[in-house]
Amino acid sequence: MYLHPELETLSRPEIEVLQLERLKKTVAQCMNSPFYRKRFADHHIKPEDIRSLDDLKKIPFTTKQDLRDNYPFGLAAVPMEQVVRLHSSSGTTGTPTVILHTQKDLDEWANAVARCLYMVGLRPGDIFQNSSGYGMFTGGLGFQYGAERLGMLTVPAAAGNTKRQIKFITDFGTTALHAIPSYAGRLYEVMEEMGIDPKRDTKLHTLIIGAEPHSEEQRRRIEEMLGVKAYNSFGMSEMCGPGVAFECKKQNGLHIWEDYYIVEIVDPQTLEPVPEGEVGELVLTTINREAMPLLRYRTRDLTRILPGDCPCGRHHIRLDRMKGRSDDMMILKGVNIFPIQIETILMQFAELGNDYLITLTNEEANDLMTVEVELKEFCDDYPRLQALTKEITRQLKDEILITPIVRLVPKGSLPKQEGKAVRVNDLRKTLI
Ligand code: COA
Ligand code: AMP
Ligand code: ZN
Question: In this structure, which residue's CA is closest to atom 10 in ligand 1?
Answer without folding.
Answer: 160
